[in-house]
Amino acid sequence: MASYGGQQDFAVSAFMSKVDKLGGLVRKNRFSVEITPPNSLSSEIQASSINFLAKTISFPARAFGSTTYRSGGRFGLEVPYETTFEPVSLTILDTGNHAARKFWNGWFEHIQGVDAATGQNYNMQYYKKFVGTVKISTYSEEQPIKTAPKYQITLHQAWPKTISAIELGWENSELADFDIDIAYSRWTETT
Question: Does this model's pTM top 0.70?
Answer without folding.
Answer: yes
